[in-house]
Amino acid sequence: MGLATIVQTIAHTLDEEMRRDDRVVILGEDVGKRGGVFLATEALFQKYGPDRVIDTPLSEAAIIGAAVGMAVHGLRPVAEIQFADYIFPGFDQLVSQAAKLRYRSGGQFSAPMVIRMPAGGGVKGGHHHSQSPETHFVHTPGLKVVYPSTPHDTKGLLKTAIRDDDPVVFMEPKRLYRAIKEEVPEEDYCIEFGKAHLRRKGDDVVLVSYGATMAETLKAADALHEQGISAEVIDLRSLLPWDKTTVCRSVARVGRVVLVSEAPRMANFMSEVSATLTEEILDALLAPPIRVTGFDTPYPYAYDREYLPGPNRILKAVQKVLSY
Amino acid sequence: MGLATIVQTIAHTLDEEMRRDDRVVILGEDVGKRGGVFLATEALFQKYGPDRVIDTPLSEAAIIGAAVGMAVHGLRPVAEIQFADYIFPGFDQLVSQAAKLRYRSGGQFSAPMVIRMPAGGGVKGGHHHSQSPETHFVHTPGLKVVYPSTPHDTKGLLKTAIRDDDPVVFMEPKRLYRAIKEEVPEEDYCIEFGKAHLRRKGDDVVLVSYGATMAETLKAADALHEQGISAEVIDLRSLLPWDKTTVCRSVARVGRVVLVSEAPRMANFMSEVSATLTEEILDALLAPPIRVTGFDTPYPYAYDREYLPGPNRILKAVQKVLSY
Amino acid sequence: MIKDSQLFQPFSEKPIRLMGDAGEWLGSFELNLDSDTLLKFYRDMLRARLFDERLLLLHRRGQVSFVAPSAGHEAAQVAVAAALKPKKDWVFPYYREPGLLLALGVPAVELFGQAMATRADPNRGRQMPAHPGSRDFNVFTVASVIASHLPPAVGTAISMKVRNTGEVVVASFGDGATSEGDFHAGLNFAGVQGAPIVFVCQNNRYAISVEYHKQTAAETIASKAEAYGLPGYLVDGMDVLACFFVMREAVARARQGFGPSLVEMQVYRLGPHSSADDDTRYRPVEEVETWKTRDPLARMHRFLAHRGLWSREEDLALRTEIEREFRQAVEDAQRAGAVPLEWMFEDVFAELPDHLREQRRDLL
Amino acid sequence: MIKDSQLFQPFSEKPIRLMGDAGEWLGSFELNLDSDTLLKFYRDMLRARLFDERLLLLHRRGQVSFVAPSAGHEAAQVAVAAALKPKKDWVFPYYREPGLLLALGVPAVELFGQAMATRADPNRGRQMPAHPGSRDFNVFTVASVIASHLPPAVGTAISMKVRNTGEVVVASFGDGATSEGDFHAGLNFAGVQGAPIVFVCQNNRYAISVEYHKQTAAETIASKAEAYGLPGYLVDGMDVLACFFVMREAVARARQGFGPSLVEMQVYRLGPHSSADDDTRYRPVEEVETWKTRDPLARMHRFLAHRGLWSREEDLALRTEIEREFRQAVEDAQRAGAVPLEWMFEDVFAELPDHLREQRRDLL
Ligand SMILES: Cc1ncc(C[n+]2csc(CCOP(=O)(O)OP(=O)(O)O)c2C)c(N)n1
Ligand SMILES: Cc1ncc(C[n+]2csc(CCOP(=O)(O)OP(=O)(O)O)c2C)c(N)n1
Ligand SMILES: [Mg+2]
Ligand SMILES: [Mg+2]
């Protein structure tokens, strides 16, 4: 499909999947004529009509709940939540219905569906257009959680998500929607969940991140490179399952690690990674794993860049683990 | 107030606080004539009438949201969510309104309120009467989170919660509601948040827990004692803020720690404790902190005791850290 | 969207009734049901009643941890089942509906198995009693979270519409459920989509202890339909014929593409909310006694007797037969054996992921 | 609960109007407002319009990151403010209501300060533009989450009732908001409690791109009141007099203890949803043009001119005066200066906890 941004890749991939499988339907607020407020479903309404691209009333509970019911009946719904922050009015449908249906019915019913949502800050959206709720999802048994950071991975992961037999929360790095353009292969390919992507190889420190903060993490790696410090950079790509093997292998080899995520710090997903590293490879740690995260405040409007774990804060953390 | 169970202490403490301060009102499902399904508000409706003990329609969003509005207008609402599992239909009111109001209004408005909820498993309730959602609350900036394990602490912490100027999620260990009876002092006392309680002193291993799993943790400590192993046992009592100082001090001294919580394992609150321990006192760790938690499944009905981190699983973990 | 009603008008002031207290026919049209059908209504209601009694017995013996008795709701539930095509149409029930499932044909052994969490439960023992579900009968497994099944029910109905399958959904719930946001989200979306679904509220005037007038200031639940552009029917829920004829019409309308409706069936819970409840704390005994005189089973019995279709002796024989069936079903359910511990880790996902494999290994 | 209406009937088929398209009085009663009041309506509407225009200018210059224009909603918003006792009654607005706040008396400098996140914002720059709030004026700070302010609004109204303060709450929102569970939860609880609150829906027939008939199958938003036992009024929301008189009655009724009501004001958003929207993707230009002919400002202008109360010259002078006021207010808001970085950590709790102290130290 040539050079494409993340948001273009989403629209394109949805189109491919809808063409491939007529069980795939889209629903959400403004996904129809408008093509989504970010244009992630652009032109699909015009192409597939109102039965397969459904503009819903303004209710996230209706969106997620109806997607569950559609999936149960054999469709493959892809629901859009306009901003990740608005998952909360539909949170119960996600955690009580979508996540638990297969289990509570003994496998009689299941909800193969995708819940797409632009997430993360840095777009001057204040606290209700900037949040990173991934930890809530990871902590909910029954959900898979994916968070790509490049157009290439977006295509492969979104295809896997749509074809997966379980509910997948598909988070999208909204501040990178149009920031990166890369060559996205024409062919049909899927990227397996739980396989991290080694974005850089390096020997002095490992940087682990995912989603929107990959951009900041790579910038930090570049800056380190200039200082003669070689950083291994891991893009997790999916958080549930997450690729413990790759992370542990790199950290065991290098001994030093910085974990980057923009969600609030307290009980952040990266705490799980840190705790796992200690449990698995304590003796290989030459320094404590350090988490660089958002702060434990609601997401602020003013100084929303300062809230984020930018390259400077990452470099400071690297300094700390290197000088430990 | 003599010998009392946890649930009796709650009713008694609510009564004292309502007498002390006529801004304190109670609202929730069945809290009125019925006195709550667990009788935690027994006799209060009869004593204070329908304006101060309000039976609400069956809507958790209405309960939490209305409590926010009452608090804004000067009341001190104590809302009951019938089971912690039912916080989710009201989750948005909790995270988008209660938690963020002070911040988003620049301190102009605030929501001093308590949201009480019986939590935890082991009562044959299946997955919607057994969950432990505390991590979701801890990960939400703007909420305080408290989880007592004894009648004595229940009184002191509930008083602090009601008098606190911010929203407090007050979790109650439902399987201990009537399991422990102890002497609860007559006088008015508050227990500061963020101060753990050293339940046992010991030198071989530190056990950290809170809420309902304190019972299992203490049983494990007793069993260890019989084996000649001395366990220090810390009851966190509040999770936000949590008492980093006490935990780090004990673990730094002893070098070995087991973290017990019945919530699902992935990104459990204890991951935060573990990550913090590594960050703060890596070199004092003689073994990796090991988490003993619920499993990453929805809460099951059959084998609901096996799901919980019982004494055996705690002992196995202790064995592991001791033999590391 | 709404087709002109054939027999019944929505938003009536008084509940639609077809059978008087003494069991007399009140309909303005000729009753055109054969005696087999009428007897089946009664039989299904009696099975529902006796099922609950059996569960209460098992509860007293400690073999079942929880019961939510449905006595008083039988007419409503049996009528809903009778209006549907079993195994074709879908049902999204709530927890107080053994009568509905039994009348649809779900084997008693599965329901007892569910209540006792044995291998006879197709849901594999994952939930507390009163939470059945059956893929075979298109019965969506009950979730405890009140009203949370309504948005999924609507999604299924939209799928039926989009794919033009000719199927219909019935979703049922109590009066308390109507206060949840999910009720609103579900009915509103169904209205917009004109989906083939009938919403059935079994209004027993209490949500545990909370009386109807504390639940809502609306005069009736049926009137809430207006907010969604749907017809709302108010029905005497202890009159199995009224429930059946109204449901039949609502289901037919949905099937023909004329969209959803809301049916309020006014019932009364003759027992406590559940085995964990003490209803004397909040309900006057006299109120309960008054409603007991309107017992839907007794009323149908009178109706049948009236027409010479039923006798005391037949009644006793039927009871004995059902009791025998249920004793056997309980035995079968028990004999199926406890669910194995390793099932705890299955069905979280279609395939067991690594982290659950590790956790299973640690436990077993 | 509902007191007999004095002037208006709920659930009318057609919107209540008091002013014709040409600005003629249509009321069945004598208009008993003095010219100062009438002129103030117009003035407040004009201020609202010019406020938006100023914001759009600042947006084009890159000084404001986002605007949600309210042109077309001014009559509704100004009428709501006029029906209240400022600083006594409480308002729970949504994001498209600068006109409401200005008319209540909230200083323009605070609103510009909010839009630019300077120290002039009493909310301390915590949220994106269009999210004002003022403790001084009992205006609950806007949250982006649609309809999420409604349950809190009801809680405040219940507190007023319980403490018998004689205050009233107005909570306003768009048509899209009526689909959220929080709308339902709020109105239902308010109905049960008979709380002193008036719900105002500014129905502009779109929620971003989603048209009214995809939002709900209900004929009107006003009809949804029935589901909660409330009176629902359908009003021409571009008729400031109709909005005012209906609101005055609803507020009086709430204040006198007769409970809540729902007022639907039919308006039209003359501009795009926001500065980030392109409404030509989903709205026919002709539709927009038709509605523009019903501009509430022009209509009121005609009404006043009709009565000899207003001239072109006065209009020009007033515009100049307001422009001057706003230029000054923008300048003052800017001069107040950016909010300091360390504020990021304040107001999470009443007191700064240790973990935030550490995080602040790490950043600064
Ligand atoms: C979301 C949620 N909140 C609370 C409960 C606890 N609860 C279980 S049953 C019930 C009352 C339900 O009343 P109603 O809907 O009228 O049904 P009924 O039991 O009367 O048949 C409540 C509050 C729940 N199951 N789910
Ligand atoms: C819970 C939630 N979901 C989605 C959004 C995104 N959003 C912002 S405004 C809007 C449309 C609101 O429409 P309406 O209520 O009619 O008000 P209007 O903008 O037309 O005045 C949407 C969907 C949101 N803010 N909150
Ligand atoms: Mg009921
Ligand atoms: Mg609108």
Q: Low-confidence spans of chain A: pLDDT under 50, at least 5 residues?
A: none
Instruction: Find the count of extended strands of chain A (DSSP E, 2+ residues).
Output: 14
Mean pLDDT of chain A: 98
For this structure, the CATH topology of the largest domain in chain A is Rossmann fold
Number of helices of chain C: 12
CATH superfamily of chain C: Thiamin diphosphate (ThDP)-binding fold, Pyr/PP domains
Radius of gyration based on Cα positions of chain C: 20 Å
> And the CATH topology of chain C?
Rossmann fold
CATH class bucket of chain C: Alpha Beta
CATH architecture of chain C: 3-Layer(aba) Sandwich
Bound molecules: thiamine diphosphate, magnesium ion
Strand content of chain A: 15-25%
Counting structural domains of chain C, the number is 1
N-to-C SSE string of chain C, H for helix and E for strand: HHEHHHEHEEEHEHEHHHH
SSE run of chain A: EHEHEHEHHEHEHEEEEHEEHEHEHH
Cα-to-Cα separation, first versus last residue of chain C:
57 Å
Question: Can you describe this structure in just a few lines?
Answer:
The complex is a heterotetramer, with two copies of chain A (324 residues) and two copies of chain C (364 residues). Chain A is α/β, with parallel strands linked by helices and 324 residues long. In chain A, 36% of the residues lie in helices and 20% in strands.
What does this structure look like?
The complex is a heterotetramer, with two copies of chain A (about 325 residues) and two copies of chain C (about 375 residues). With about 325 residues, chain A is α/β, with parallel strands linked by helices. Chain A folds into two domains: about 1-185, 3-Layer(aba) Sandwich (Rossmann fold), CATH 3.40.50.970; about 195-320, Rossmann fold (3-Layer(aba) Sandwich). Chain A contains twelve helices and 14 strands. Chain A has helices at about 5-20, 45-50, 60-70, 90-100, 100-105, 135-140, 150-165, 215-225, 245-255, 270-280, 305, 310-320; strands at about 1-5, 25-30, 55, 75-80, 115-120, 145, 170-175, 180-185, 195-200, 205-210, 230-235, 240, 255-265, 290-295. In chain A, strand 2, helix 2 (about 45-50) and strand 3 form a beta-alpha-beta unit. The N and C termini of chain A lie far apart (about 45 Å). The relative contact order of chain A is 0.12. Chain C is about 40% helix and about 10% strand. In chain C, strands 1-2-3-7-6 form a five-stranded parallel sheet, sandwiched between helices. Chain C has about 375 residues and is α/β, with parallel strands linked by helices. The radius of gyration of chain C is 20 Å and the shape is globular. The longest helix of chain C is centred in the first third of the chain and has 26 residues, at about 35-60. The structure holds thiamine diphosphate (TPP) (2 copies) and magnesium ion (MG) (2 copies). One magnesium ion binds near residues 174, 175, 176, 204 and 207 of chain C.
